[in-house]
Amino acid sequence: MSDEIKPKLIPLTMWNEFHLWPSIGGLRHLVSHAKKKKFDHVVIRAGGRVLIDEAAFFEWTKSNQQSRSS
What we know:
Radius of gyration: 13 Å
Order of helices and strands: EHEEH
Number of strands: 3
Number of domains: 1
Mean pLDDT: 89
């Protein structure tokens, strides 16, 4: 077995079943402006589905919050 940790990928449409924030509409906005918002490493497109890498999302949130407060 590998000690590698697999990322938890959540389909965009099911995000609110796991987390209250952001809304599906807010996530769609981030996905549609992914390059501009530096959110593209959080989004994974597979077989016509849009998946969100949960760990990458929270890392992005943390780094985005720090840049605003500075």
